[in-house]
Amino acid sequence: MKITVNGTPREAAANLALADLLNDYKLNPKTTLVELNREVLDRSVYDTTQLQDGDTVELVRFVGGG
Amino acid sequence: MEINRYARLQQLTDIGEAGLRKLHNARIALVGCGTLGSLYAINLTRMGIGYLRLIDRDIVEPHNLGTQFLYNEFDAAKTRPKALAAKQHLEPMNADCHIEAVATSISAKTAPKYLYDVDLIVDATDNFDTRFIINDLAVRENLPWLYTGVVGYFGVTTLIKPQETACLHCLISDPPSSGELPTCETEGVWPPAAQTITAFGLKELTNFLVSATVSGVLHTIDFQADRWTHVQGKRQQNCPTCVQRDFKFIDGKNGYSATSLCGREMVHILPDQEKAVDLPEIAKRLSHSFKVMQTEDLLRVKIPEGEIYLFADGRALIKGVNDVERARSLYDRYIGS
After folding, report:
1. Which of A28, A33, A63 is facing B154, going by the closest CB pair?
2. Smallest CA–CA separation between A32 and chain B, in Å?
3. Domains present along chain B, CATH in parentheses
4. Which of A19, B7, B79, B335 is the most exposed place for a label (fewest CB within 10 A)?
5. How far is CA B241 from CA B148, B164, B250, B286, B293, in A?
């Protein structure tokens, strides 16, 4: 299936788990905000969310430097 | 306040004379005077914020000069505390802005003292431990605060208004432990990324002070991916801080706390109570065995393990160690507890 992550289209395995996607990008779920199809997800559904064909995902990471 | 000096700001559609007066009446606490803090401080001073409290625990070192625009080689040579050097450089930029410098660290203990009597807290710190303390205090006291972070070519900012927008604990589930996230020490920082993200932060800040509007948007800028984004944040239904009001980062905490300054081989020691220490006396005692240098702000002691920078309020930076327990023991050994 095709999804778009941070503005870039890519191929993904059917029903890709969100946790696996985060892992792919080496992002820590604790410090990453996930927007799925323009809607920010509640943290409680991170573990159970699977992506569908055509989904648009924005992964917002937080950084501590200053 | 001489309005004419702000003519170019006054002409901006969202500001006008009424807006200028609101900026002049605003009180802001700025936590952290490094790369981000330099940029915020210069902008806030020049735009005529009436009162600015600068808080920073660190000293100016040569490696700061490439990215921290407030400081110069004289500050680094004299290892001046950043807050004091910043005040000295900012004051001639605008006499309308009353600047107070506090050379200390924000902890569970000091946060209520330095962050309560302001309209807005601007975070320009370099770690999440301090940000979670700020978040607890801000939510508890219902104060808005501006989060900004920058690493490498990437920056992120959002204005947090308790009960209206997501708070930091809605956005991040818990402070990442040290070493978990990249830092400016491991990935560097590109000053234009800091400049760009502070521009978004300053827009949010100005909108809030002038028009009392808050977007709740997270702005990000990524110069490596050549991309910026604006994501509407969302409160978490059972946020421990802004929903359940459990302020675990400031409640019941007191320290003789020691925190490692990320990747710097330096540990910051903050005594339990602010206690005045007698710098000349300590200098005299230690100078029998070690090389000691006293500046107007602090005492520098070369020890076999590295170097101690001791401040008059008992705080110290222990250079040459990363381990906080080891730093505590060095503090106890050389300075005494």
Report:
1. A63
2. 7
3. 3-232 (3.40.50.720), 258-334 (3.30.310)
4. B7
5. 19, 13, 11, 46, 45
